[in-house]
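Intended use. Records like the one below are meant for learning the mapping from a protein sequence to its folded structure. Do not use them to infer anything beyond what is encoded.
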Amino acid sequence: MTRLQHQLNQYQLTVAGENALMLYFDQRIDPVISALVQQACTLIRAELAEDIIDLLPSYASVLILFNPLSTDHYRVQAQLQHCLAHLQNSNQHSGKLVELPVYYSTESGPDLALIASTKNISVAEVIQRHQAVSYRVYAIGFAPGFAYLGEVDPLLQMPRLATPRAKVPRGAVAIADRQTAVYPAASPGGWNLIGLCPTRMFNPAAEHAMPVAVGDEVRFVAIDKAEFLRLGGELPELELPKLECSGTKP
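Structure written out for the chain above:
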């Protein structure tokens, strides 16, 4: 198939497959761009209706998967142009606010002390600053339910560990550079661990498999160990942190 690329004002539309188009807004993490992505998804769903198979929003782009039996690239392209003509610049979001409980401690967050000493602040201040911010869900990826949340207080920004842990437990709350996240399942990972969240970030058996979606806002709320256990949290054995750091991937 011939590669199609069309400039739509400041937007860019590119063929991403036989029944897919990728809509790019920019190349940066920005709440205004994220709000445009959410507006676009709402307008596209209404405009394309049953021709849509799926929409996959991310930081500054949307992947549009359409039914090739009912439409084609050129018709979808024209419909997208119509949608984009109705976008408005806004920092507002249409997502919901989700509160996630976190058991912050050096027991549940083995990198808390590392962050505190690196930034020359107390562990208590690390915890306070992490809770003080509302985080936008910019993207979900790496694993089902892994929500990339931004942006972290500048004082808490930490590079990814140079030597990733072989196993990060489910529910681990972590920081890497300007982002924070909750690991939805046990997996290898190199983010800095600061606590544990008892909320399941991915449960395929639930009516809503994930508690958050792109465009939502997340606030973390500190709980004690007893409450963490009461809510179904588990305390796994955690690897001690390595001292050297670098990089940005989970």
